[in-house]
Amino acid sequence: MKGSSGNFVLPDPDQYLLVGFQGSRSNTAEADRFTVNLAVISKSAWKQGWRPWWGKPSATVQGPVGTYMRLGELMPQHDDVWWELTPGTDTATLAAEVVQAVQQFGLPRLLQDRSGG
Fold first, then answer.
1. What global pTM score does this model have?
2. Which residues pair with 18 in a beta bridge?
3. Between the CA of residue 74 and those of 22, 32, 36, 52, what are the distances in Å?
């Protein structure tokens, strides 16, 4: 995957396969909560319908075309999941947990939806 600033894309010739990190509006210096959003957007549909107010394809801002989902909904609990980062958080453990969830549940779903499965 390539990207920065919490927005990443898995290269594909026909689809935007996107992973986006969304911070909570209630974040503070003491606690930062975030979730992971995923999107599969047809490049041709995006190009055909594009309007200036759409901006760039994003997993965190739902556009008028594509399939959007939260990573937590794909995990065994099938519920919205927000991870929390505090001054006492073991960041290596947190990062490993999030990466594992993206690899185990997010990427397979992006690839499945890309192929129409």
1. 0.89
2. 9, 39
3. 17, 22, 11, 32
Partner residues linked to 26 by β-bridges = none
Task: For residue 2, report the phi and psi dihedrals to the nearest 5 degrees.
Answer: -125, 150
CA angle 94, 97, 103 (to 5 degrees): 140
Q: Hey, is 12 helix, strand or coil? A: coil
Cα 110 to Cα 115: distance, rounded to the nearest angstrom:
9
- Per-residue pLDDT reduced to its tens digit, 70-98: 999 999 999 999 999 999 999 999 999 99
Q: Measured between alpha carbons, how far is 66 from 5 in angstroms, rounded to an integer?
A: 21
Tell me whether residue 78 is exposed, middle or buried, using C-beta atoms within 10 angstroms of its C-beta: 0 to 12, 13 to 18, 19 or more: exposed
Alpha helices in the chain (DSSP H): 43-49, 71-74, 91-101, 107-114
